[in-house]
Amino acid sequence: MHKRQESTMRFVSLLLITFPGAEYFLAPMARIAAEETVVRPRPAAGPLDNPLKGWCPYTNAGRIHQPYSMVFQYISWRELEPVENEFRFEEWEESWNREAARGKHIIFRVYVDYPSKPSGLPDWLRKAGVRETPYEDYGGGKSPDYDNPRMVAGLERLIAALGKRYNQSPRIAFIQLGLLGFWGEWHTYPRSELYASPDTQRRVIDAYRRAFPDKSLMVRYARGYAAQQDWLGFHDDMFPEDTDNGKDWSFLAGMRRAGRTENWKLAVVGGEMVPGKAERWLGGDYDTTLTMLERSHFTWVGPYCPALARPRDDTFVKRSEELVRRMGYEFQLTELAHPASARARQAIRLSLRGRNLGTAPFYYPWRVVWALFDPSGKVVSLQETDWDIRKWQPGEFAAGTELAFDIPPGNYRLAMGIRDPWSNQPAIRFANDLPVMNGWTILSEIQVSE
Questions:
Q1: pLDDT digits over 204-234, tens only?
Q2: 245-to-222, 253, 277, 295 alpha-carbon distances in Å
Q3: pLDDT band for position 35 (50/70/90)?
Q4: Once rounded to an integer, what is the mean pLDDT over residues 283-291?
């Protein structure tokens, strides 16, 4: 028997011992040149709670009926900075520990004016002379003078403080600019006279860019100064009804006019489903929903999303799962090739092929790490690659690296992980039938000799 065939049989035997029933996960191994192992994993439906994609519900909206990996958090400026220059971030973060948010990544938006809710303008700005104009639309509220110099300076200082606190926080997934307009959605329709001037909009966007160089940011519309930014993501808060409905004010129509339909390749796109309408958009209008998802390259949907609706039938559940798997990234491995054996401390070449079945890339440089497990299940070697998974755009991808093992001779299982810097553990799983152990995807086996 060739060494390659012996290596394959050892890998099969070891998996069957370690993972009973693993015959259902084993990939066919190509019979090619001796001493090389090639693994071609079987495809499978991807997980429904992979990080930084899928449903992103409120944490206080009641029961959540489907898997999710992120939660959405609103917060008013008044709560964050009740006294000038005294920020209450720690108090806000306590809400991240409630059961529905525990262990989940965060998307947040800070607002000043949320119709039908008390004003989010800090009292110290009101006392400093920032004027508010009452309105009755959407349940009513008070719109602040966004162009007041004290207001603009305060906004810039708040954004800088947010960046200092959260730019390097690995728990924060994405950030919506918020702050301006009704709900922080960058409009005051139909009261356009209440909205911020172009100069204030520019200063807010520039402040966010300075404060969050390492985060993927979103704004509601590709208009004005926002339309000139090739680094900025967008959110559609009436998905899929207003995503591309043929009107010149629709979400994608604005992005087309601005030439920003390709921004999704660098910055995240997401947003909220039409509140309370999950049954419609996963029912008779499901084809429209799927089409709008593909066109807009959504990565996530929330805070209102189908996960908050009690499943009506199996069709609703299956369509929900299909949407999650199409959102954002969906990595499927197609081939791994490496020598069947290696000498200790001698480099070998490993190559990987796969495809991204989703509608968007992954937006952060999470590290790909290779691990060796000994027969007892202990990790005895970790080697980080320089692969940039942000480049694994929809379609095929390939990567290669060199590995060297400074370990005792023996047979080892070879595993791959994409490490979440928040937990410092492998977190992204693949759309393949492969064994997973403590987040590591077991792909193959290798023999290490003296």
A1: 999 999 999 999 999 999 999 999 999 999 9
A2: 16, 9, 16, 12
A3: confident
A4: 97
Share of the chain above pLDDT 90, in %: 90
Mean pLDDT of the chain: 92
Least trusted range by pLDDT, from 95-104, 150-159, 331-340: 95-104
State the pLDDT confidence band at 439, using cuts at 50, 70 and 90: very high
297 and 264 in contact (C-beta within 8 Å)?
yes
- Residue 318: alpha-carbon gap to chain centroid: 21
**pLDDT of 61:** 82
Half-sphere exposure of 255 (CA within 13 A, CB side): 25
Residue 201 has a CB neighbour count (10 Å cut-off) of 21
Name which of 353, 419, 352, 349 is nearest 382 in CA terms: 419
Q: How far apart are CA 196 and CA 204, in angstroms?
A: 10
How many CB atoms are closer than 10 A to CB 391? 13
From CA 154, how far away is CA 312, in angstroms rounded? 47
Strand duo 331-339 + 36-39: pairing: antiparallel
Per the confidence metrics, is the pTM higher than 0.85?
yes
232 is written with which tokens?
């900025």
